Amino acid sequence: MTDAAELRTRTRELLAEYPPATTEPLDFLKARFDAGLAWVHYPAGLGGLDVPRSLQAVVDAELAAAGAPDNDPRRIGIGLGMAAPTVLKYGTEEQKRRFLRPLWVGEEVWCQLFSEPGAGSDLAALGTRAVRDGDDWVVDGQKVWTSSAHLARWAILIARTDPALPKHQGISYFICDMTDPGVEVRPLRQITGEAEFNEVFLTGVRIPDAHRLGEVGAGWKVAQTTLMNERVSIGGMRIPREGGMIGPVARAWRERPELRTHDLHQRLLALWVEAEVARLTGERLRQQLVAGQPGPEGSGMKLAFARLNQEISGLEVELLGQEGLLYSDWTMRRPELVDFTGRDAGYRYLRSKGNSIEGGTSEVLLNIVAERVLGLPAEPRNDKDVAWKDLAR
Amino acid sequence: MTAEQATPDLLYSEAEDDLRAAVRSLLTDRTDTPAALARAESDTPCDPELWRALGAGMELAGLLVPEKLGGQGASHREAAVVLEEIGRSVAPVPFLTSAVIATETLLALGDGKGEVTSLVRELASGHRTAALVVPFSAGPHGVRLPGTLTGTVSAVADAATADVLLVPTGAGLYAVDAAEAAIVPLTPLDLTRPLAAVTLDGLPGALLAGPDATLAAVRRGLLAGAGLLASEQLGVAEWCLTETVAYTRERKQFNRPVGSFQALKHRMAQLWLEVVSARAAARNAADALATGSPETPLAAAVAQAYCARVAVHAAEECVQLHGGIGMTWEHPAHLYLKRAKSAQIALGSAGEHRAAIAELVELPAP
């Protein structure tokens, strides 16, 4: 069993052999992966050492102290947070060896081809078709809300392989090559003026059967792994006090006394308390995970942060008064990174509207909490046992 | 706020889980709604036998008192767990008022004075209780003391059953034998927390501390009370949510359980999120009090400003989602609603706590 002291030693050996100051960042990252120090809870040979995830902090602290380069996790968030755990759980040995290393070192960016214009909250109703043709699948359909699609080398894709089965049963899960000539990526401009997301049109895209994850028809089950990891990564970030959306408005309050009113003061304090309690709730969730007592609180954190981000950024626009009438810039751009608390108050207000939609709407998440955490009965449904092709659309 | 904060322990230890199980078991055996309702309208609205079992029998009265003074030498973390269970059962016992607020006030006076020490020992034994003679609405930030032993203090919690009254005045802190005082029981909104008016005029009292020490000790007692009341509010909210979920899973209208309607289940899921958050806030306050953290005033204020509203919201939803039965005297929901609504005022309103936060984190009023 590898303990903290042993991990520290291994990390120091890595640093001695590949001094960050004189090593190309990509070479250092590859060496780190091969030393099992990329994600220590992953298996040996796949960037990890089969030790508890909590020990990653030991490695990260050593590396940070030595000024080692990181893999810019925000740029490859979908790969790290969603594709990797799914490949790890459902991939063949060959798939794991092929995909995980370039994913982790950041050589290959990933995107997610799940949502469709006709399948949002009801994702299982998706209509993108994958038809078997020899050793390949031929894929036709349209996906939407795909961040990083214009940068991505690979995509995780769910498509319908059997329309005669009920909707959850006829889906399969693939790894799609984004350089295939049948993939067309178009920017999707959003209310902030920029295009952080894309529409992806798939026309005769060929995917080798060797790039299928899980059994044919088991795609919905495989996708659950991806989606649970998405919600954890959206809601589970560690933040210091005033580290989230409350930070900019608190700073503005302190630095600009001329903006203060009694009404705004009361509302600011109420939101400050809620932001602090949300921070503590996230902290408690992390302590539970470290102590090996995972609780259902994770499903709630995204709900809390979505609402708070919206209310706080809305207050900030009001606080700014006359300046709140202005917006920094409506120019159409395709940003590589998204920072919910970045840019100006108007941007934060508009961007946070997406927080209660992306990664599961708040309404769907409330259903999940009610049914899976509280054990309340599901709404009666009339679509579960009907062939997908016979559903109303 | 750029200062680094120490990370509080927001979980429950095994010992705390064991304590909870023991307290819950006793409270489950000894409390029920018909008895609680009968007691609420009787001459003894508190439950002295239950308090004997909890305070003396389980030795909870001395949780906060060091062993050398005859207590358990435990901490606010354990007291918070006890309060969660008291909240969950709306038990009419003077734990918060005597074992937390009065005891903490006396402990804050420090070592030395023989009368203080012997009083602490008596309270720790659970055989006697004390009430701090301030209105139950007084919080650590806004408490005002009478200049001398004159006038009447209204809405003093658990005064009618207390053996000793701790009377803070501008001239110092007095211990008064409750048998000597004019104590008039009032009709409380919260049927399970007795209130009384205490008339101070001409009371014979022993002076325990001078004016400066008194104000600091009273503030500390009320700070501990406010910080730990959050755990009682958490217990109230948890009971309300659990009961509401259980009821709406069983209750059928339109040929299906009413808990399957999204209009209802979303409200319960939202409440669950609030309860989860209240737990983090309440644990944070308890841990800060237990460890003597410099952030204790902020942690307590945040917990009160947040948990008070959660308890009220949970109790109001409990009544509403139970429908007609929730409006009856027979169903216990109203006991929780009354406890929650009173607790929202107790030990400083949310507004007072937010005003304190404004100072503590430098977000000043215009």
Which labels suit this protein?
heterodimer, A: 393 residues, alpha+beta, Butyryl-CoA Dehydrogenase, subunit A, domain 2, Butyryl-CoA Dehydrogenase, subunit A, domain 3, 3 domains, four-stranded mixed sheet, four-stranded antiparallel sheet, B: 366 residues, three-stranded antiparallel sheet
Broad shape of chain A: globular
Structure class of chain A: alpha+beta
Distance between the termini of chain A: 55 Å
CATH architecture of the domain at 214-360 in chain B: Up-down Bundle
CA-based gyration radius of chain A: 23 Å
Largest interface, C-beta within 8 A: A-B, 48 and 45 residues
Helix segment count of chain A?
Answer: 11
> What is the residue-averaged pLDDT of chain A?
93
* CATH architectural designation of the largest domain in chain A: Beta Barrel
CATH topology of the largest domain in chain A: Butyryl-CoA Dehydrogenase, subunit A, domain 2
Instruction: Identify low-pLDDT runs of chain B.
Output: none
Overall pLDDT of chain B = 95
Q: What portion of residues of chain B is helical?
A: 40-55%
CATH topology of the domain at 214-360 in chain B: Butyryl-CoA Dehydrogenase, subunit A, domain 3
The CATH superfamily of the domain at 214-360 in chain B bears the name Butyryl-CoA Dehydrogenase, subunit A, domain 3
The gross shape of chain B turns out to be: globular
Number of H/I helices of chain B: 11
Reading side by side through the largest sheet of chain B, how are the strands ordered? 1-3-4-7
